[in-house]
Amino acid sequence: MKARHALLIGTLGFCTLTLFTSGIAHAQEEAAEETAGSEGDDQAGDGEAADEASTDEAEAGDSTSEEAAKDDNAGTDEAPAGSASPAELPGKSYQFVGLRYRGIIVPQFMMDLFGEGGEGVYVHAFGPEFAIRRDNFEYNFSIWYADYGMDPTTFKAKDDPDDAWEIVESQLKVLYLTADFLWSHDFSPEFAVNYGMGAGLGFVFGKLYRQQARPPASNPSAPPEDWVPCDAPTPGTPCGDDNNHYGDYAEPSWANGGSKPIVFPWLALQTGLRYKPHPKFVARLDLGFGTSGFFFGLGADYGL
After folding, report:
1. Which of 173, 227, 243, 272 has its CA 20 to 30 A from that of 252?
2. Cα separation of 145 and 128, whole Å?
3. pLDDT at residue 162, rounded to an integer
4. Dist. CA 132–CA 97, nearest whole Å
């Protein structure tokens, strides 16, 4: 019996020890898993925090880069893309194409430089133009047409005798090829004052009619501006036979021995205002004096 009791007690003790040991081992495993899970969560949390920090740093870097880019753009004074600012950048060339009109006033005193009589003439002129501009200086090239038409008026050369008056009618036209050289002083990106000079050459065409003149029969003492055309040569009168300036006589050009010019120079000093409300549009008011007299002009150009 004692042996059986001892065996039973030993078996129970062994089983109890095995269960206790197994429980301890299982508890240790659960504790280890919980610890590992906690560490994994901590590591995951740390990783997410690191990712968030990296994202924040990246966003901060992008923001800094954008601000730096803005600062750089601000330093160049260049208008943003799509901006309607008319400002022009130093060192950059701009090109414009457009049209011009000029009204030329040939005053009486310029007529008096070459003869007596005549009258002031207003000349309409217009044509296309092309401008190249850089650093407040521009070349403005143009081909323009000018009509120097004049109604019949009495005129004679200074060294001609008092009975040598003629009635002169002009149907002359000039095709000019010119270049304006203009500097600008800016008051703002939109407004500037221009100043400079123009030079070029005009090609003359059209008729210049001349007729000998005489006092009207009803008033032999009439002033020259009231004289009438001679019908035919009459020796001993203002309608002399020393020339053939009768009827529809037209003065020949220089090439044919006459006094009508073939070319005419254009030289002018000028100033004016420049208005640029938009990068693609420029308006201009020109004022000046040149070989044809005083002039004013208007220009409208489109930026290329």
Report:
1. 227
2. 10
3. 87
4. 9
56-81 pLDDT, tens digit per residue, is 554 444 545 555 444 444 444 444 54
CA distance 67 to 63: 6
Q: What is the 3-state secondary structure (H, E, C) of 185-218?
A: EECCCCEEEEEEEEEEEEEEECCEEEEEEECCCC
SS (H, E, C) 34-101: HHHHHHHHHHHHHHHHHHHHHHHHHHHHHHHHHHHHHHHHHHHCCCCCCCCCCCCCCCCEEEEEEEEE
Mean per-residue pLDDT over the chain, rounded: 81
Hey, what are 268's tokens? 């002018």
E strand or H helix that includes residue 29: helix 2-76
Token pair 């301890």: residue:
24
Q: Where are the domains of the chain?
A: 93-303
CB contact at 8 A, 206 and 173? yes
Type of residue at 295: F
Sign of the alpha-carbon torsion through 75, 78, 81, 84: positive
**Is residue 260 pLDDT above 80, yes or no?**
yes
- 157 beta partners: 115
Q: Which class does domain 93-303 fall in?
A: mainly beta
pLDDT for 16 equals 36
pLDDT > 70 in the chain, percent: 73
pLDDT tens readout for residues 206-251: 999 999 999 999 999 999 999 999 999 998 899 998 899 999 999 9
